[in-house]
Amino acid sequence: MTRPNQPLKPEASRVRSRVIGCLEDGFITVLMGAGYGQLDGGVPTPIPAARIPPHLRMPNTELYLIIQHGQIISVEPVSDDNAA
Hints:
Layout: E1 12-24, E2 27-32, E3 43-48, E4 62-68, E5 71-77
Antiparallel strand pairs: 1-2, 1-4, 2-3, 4-5
């Protein structure tokens, strides 16, 4: 997991997302891009539960997905320090 406010590699992106819940066994579904422009509701995206720390799995938890080359490489919490 990257540290909050740690510079990202140039090819990595931080996408704000919101947890919906566990809709499929072994996966946590998040709304990727929730609150951004035409993606206001976000895009439902299943992520293996093992990729998301237990304290970030509750419904409506906001988190950042760190994406590099189209793959989720890490997850970090949204806090006052790194809120956008």
